[in-house]
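Hi R.,

Here's the chain you asked about this morning:
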Amino acid sequence: MKKYIVFGIVIFAAIILAFTLPFGSANDIETKHYANGEISFDYPATWQEVSAQGSEVVAFEDPESGLNVTVNRQTIPSGYNPPDKFVPELTEESESDLKLLANDKIDVNGKEGYDNTYHVEKNGSTTEQRELWVNTNGALYSIIYNYPQEDLEVESFLNGESENDAAFEAVRNSLNIKNTTLTSMPSFATVTIPKLGVTWNIRDDTLNALGSVYHYSSSDSSLPKSFYPGEKGSVGLLGHHTCYSAPFDNIDKLQAGDTVIINDYLTQKKYTYQVVSNDDIRYDYTTNLIEFPAGSKELVLGTCWPEGFTAAERYVHCQLSSVDPLN
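And here is the predicted structure, written out as tokens:
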């Protein structure tokens, strides 16, 4: 009997030891090398490159672990101040599905960076997102890791290092961003209106561009200034009704409850709004200026009115309903 008890204790100890040992360090991972322009780093050989989109320089997925990774670069618009520690103000609001777990200042090969970790709580499930941020070359660089839910369960049980954590360190330890002068990227986000079946770029330099709407920003002193997505203040977008792709044609058809989505490359977050009103028509819009108050969680869509004329401006008012990961 004692023999079986001792044998059971040995087996149990072996299991505990196996589960308490780390999965491996960054040095134990077989890697490949990526280099594109000023960005280079080593990454796990199990990662497979997939199509990049938006502000992504490159994107990967790992079939073995289910991990998805995007490497992003977005030049900073004039007058834009990155959020403190790269944590958007609105992620702290009740509408956010992102719960900040950790926010650590780090060194990235001589450049100041931040390592931010979120729990993503959506539709009854929880996943994890880890972000590495660096502000250099007049641009925001980010590496976004979307962890599978299964990895969370392993991490929670072991309270230690996982394979995906080691993969994060492998990229971080080798990441090199050379100093360079980048071409400006006037489009910093997109706006999607599902009811109308349209998606338009958001830019801050001109109203008169095909396929785009204009963000009320500091680049035009004749217009009121609005806030950027992720900031706690009203966001304003202005679009033509009949020319330059007529991006805001038919916004008069929007009704309370309809959805408007901003995919923001500056914060790498998705901001979803619900229409609350569509009857703000101002024939005195040059004197009765639209306002974008601080502290608001509003999105305003503006266009000339009636169709084909500039006698008035029509504004659609929306309210923030959720903040989610961009991908």
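One quick note: Residues 1-23, 152-160 have pLDDT under 50 and may be disordered.

Cheers,
M.
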